[in-house]
Structures are given as structure tokens and as C-alpha cells.
């Protein structure tokens, strides 16, 4: 049987940063109000496209793995903020990487997107159809933000993360997973004025983002907990066997609730929501990279991950890490310089939303 070992990892965080105090200058809120409810202290905003974020993260992952782009059989991009719908964003990433001949595909499961995409790419390797893939999760969530809606305006951020998967005879990589969707409640997390359902000849304006926080909280905790239990059963593992928990970074209270339900110690839980906010599909990809960078992921580690997103999608995964926790080669991949502050980058959108 083939397995899909994670041999490379990389992230791309845009340099422009927006703190809670910055947001308080454009929205009726405060650092205390935001941080006490969400755990978020700052978020980053991109000055480049989703495809450019994805490319840098993917190239860093390739360099980490010591893999050249020409070796790729698949470029899979998880995103709900694509640069373009037609052609897919993955094809632009393929072009920028120079991954000639690789298949390309975008996948949208919102915040669960990275785990969904990881399952898809792993399945292709396990089936023997491909040998090498890069799975990228990249988002420009601040493009969607309606700065007239305080409750949702403070939550999101931009960024990208990626992993390289390579065929292996060793039982490594994604070894157990569970995903699903409760579409009966999809309206509680929904952008209604985007997509082909709207009249393209009328002015759309700011995003009509419906975000029912209390209901999302309850369903997120339940959905991720049940999925984790299922994955542990599949993998024949106990909670004591888990070395690292990498949960979706949507709300610190949700993370803490999942941690308590799974009875995982603080030093085993990866948390970076304070710096990045909710980057949707990119959250777990970025968090996984940082867990390795922080030394939380040791050779042979058992990693549990769970996510919950619009749809309402949910997923959980068990990943068995390999022996290597350092890059094969240093990466020179970088974003172009940004000459604007975070507030300057959102200024036009803030004015439009407040006037609309």
C-alpha cells in the first residue's frame, strides 16, 4: 500500500498587520471587546493576490522537501477567496511555480478546506495515481469583510500555508480522517450577495455576511469533537497517544472547548489565533507549519487536527509525522515589498462600506 508522507511545509504571512487598536479606529469596538470574545489581537492583510500568497507558501514547502516543481503531479489549492474562478487559481499557482504538466484544482470547503484537500491528495497517492503533490490553503478573507458589521469585521485575516506529499511505503502522513457537512444550517454562516445567484448587472456593494456566532460556536464544538472521536477510533488510538492538537483557529473559546473535551494538555495544543485571526482554510496549514517551527512536532509525532466551516462543513484528521522536522534546503521565495500599512490597505473598503 502507498502512503502520502508530508515531506515539506511552508507558510506565507503578508507583512501588513492590523491590530485591534487599529480596527477600533474604523469600527465601534476595542481591543478588550475583541480579545476577550475571540482571543484575537491582530491579523495580517495581503497586498497581493490569493495566487501569489499560495505560490510563496507552496515554493517554501517544495524547498523544505527538497522537491523541484517539475516533479509535481498535482497542485491542489484550498480556498474560498480564489483569485479567479475561471481559470482556477491552482493553474496560476502551477504557472508561477513552473510545475509544467501537473494537474490543477481548486477546492472550497471554507475553513475545513485544507483538511478536505489533504484527504483528496492523499487518496490519489494511496490509489497509485500520482506520486507527488503540493496542497496549498490560501485566503484573502479581508476582501470579504464588511466594515459596517462589527461582529464579523474583527474576525478574519489573510495568509497561506502548504505541504508537500510524497508517496511512501512507510505508514506516514494522513492515516485516518472523517469529514462531513450539516447543510440544514448553512444559512448561519453565509455570504448571500456573492456568486451567480446575484444579478451581475446591479451594484453588489459590501459583502452581505450572515454570521450567527452563538449557533456556530455550538455546532463547531460538537462537530469537531465527534469527528475527532471517529478518527481516533479509526486509527485505534487513545487520547493519550496524541502528541499535538492542531485545531482550526476561529475562536480561542472554541479551541479551549475542544481541548477540554479531548482532555489535551496546554503544551500539546497549537494556538496562533492571537496573531492571525481566522484565515479560513489557511488556518490549519499555517498552524501546522508553526507547530513544526516551534518544536512541538517531534519525529514520529501523532497529530490530531479538526476544522469547522461554512456549509456547514467539518473535518478531522490523524497525521503520522515522519522523521524529518527541518527543511532540506533554505527557501528564497518571498512576497514583493509592501509600501502600505494595514489601515492604508483597507481604507478604500472601509469608506465604501460606511457609505453604503
UniProtKB/TrEMBL annotation:
Reactions catalysed according to its record: malonyl-[ACP] + acetyl-CoA + H(+) = 3-oxobutanoyl-[ACP] + CO2 + CoA
All copies of domain Beta-ketoacyl-[acyl-carrier-protein] synthase III C-terminal, residue ranges: 232-321
The keyword Lipid metabolism appears for this protein: yes
Quaternary context: Homodimer.
Family: Belongs to the thiolase-like superfamily. FabH family.
Domain notes: The last Arg residue of the ACP-binding site is essential for the weak association between ACP/AcpP and FabH.
Protein name: Beta-ketoacyl-[acyl-carrier-protein] synthase III
Source organism of this protein record: Pseudoalteromonas ruthenica
Taxonomic classification: Bacteria, Pseudomonadati, Pseudomonadota, Gammaproteobacteria, Alteromonadales
Amino acid at each position: 500500500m502507498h502512503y502520502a508522507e508530508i515531506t515539506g511545509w511552508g507558510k506565507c504571512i503578508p507583512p501588513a498587520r492590523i491590530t485591534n487598536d487599529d480596527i477600533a479606529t474604523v469600527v465601534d469596538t476595542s481591543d478588550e471587546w475583541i480579545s476577550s470574545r475571540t482571543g484575537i489581537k491582530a491579523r495580517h492583510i495581503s497586498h497581493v493576490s490569493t495566487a501569489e500568497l499560495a505560490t510563496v507558501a507552496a515554493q517554501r514547502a517544495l524547498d523544505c522537501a527538497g522537491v523541484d516543481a517539475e516533479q509535481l503531479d498535482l497542485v491542489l489549492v484550498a480556498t474560498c477567496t480564489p483569485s479567479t474562478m475561471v481559470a482556477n487559481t491552482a493553474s496560476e499557482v502551477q504557472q508561477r511555480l513552473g510545475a509544467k504538466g501537473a494537474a490543477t484544482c481548486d477546492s472550497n470547503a471554507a475553513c475545513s478546506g485544507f483538511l478536505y484537500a489533504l484527504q483528496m491528495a492523499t487518496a490519489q497517492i494511496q490509489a497509485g495515481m500520482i506520486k507527488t503533490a503540493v496542497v496549498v490553503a490560501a485566503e484573502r478573507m479581508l476582501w470579504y469583510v464588511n466594515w459596517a458589521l462589527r461582529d464579523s469585521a474583527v474576525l478574519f485575516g489573510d495568509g497561506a500555508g502548504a505541504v508537500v506529499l510524497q508517496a511512501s511505503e512507510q505508514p506516514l502522513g494522513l492515516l485516518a480522517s472523517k469529514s462531513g457537512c450539516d447543510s440544514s444550517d448553512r444559512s448561519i454562516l453565509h455570504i448571500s450577495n456573492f456568486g451567480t445567484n446575484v444579478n451581475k448587472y446591479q451594484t453588489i456593494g459590501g459583502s452581505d455576511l450572515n454570521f450567527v456566532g452563538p449557533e456556530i460556536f455550538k455546532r463547531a464544538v460538537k462537530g469537531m469533537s465527534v469527528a475527532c472521536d471517529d478518527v481516533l477510533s479509526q486509527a485505534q488510538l487513545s487520547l493519550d497517544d496524541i502528541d499535538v492538537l492542531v485545531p482550526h483557529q476561529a475562536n480561542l473559546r472554541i479551541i479551549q472547548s475542544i481541548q477540554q473535551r479531548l482532555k489535551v494538555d496546554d503544551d500539546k495544543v497549537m494556538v496562533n489565533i492571537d496573531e492571525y485571526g481566522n484565515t479560513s482554510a489557511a488556518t490549519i496549514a499555517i498552524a501546522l507549519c508553526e507547530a513544526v517551527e516551534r518544536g512541538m512536532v517531534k519525529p514520529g509525532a501523532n497529530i490530531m487536527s479538526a476544522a469547522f466551516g461554512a456549509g456547514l462543513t467539518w473535518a478531522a484528521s490523524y497525521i503520522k509525522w515522519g522523521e524529518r522536522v527541518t527543511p532540506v534546503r533554505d527557501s528564497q521565495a518571498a512576497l514583493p515589498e509592501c509600501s502600505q500599512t494595514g489601515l492604508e490597505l483597507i481604507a478604500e473598503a472601509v469608506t465604501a462600506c460606511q457609505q453604503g
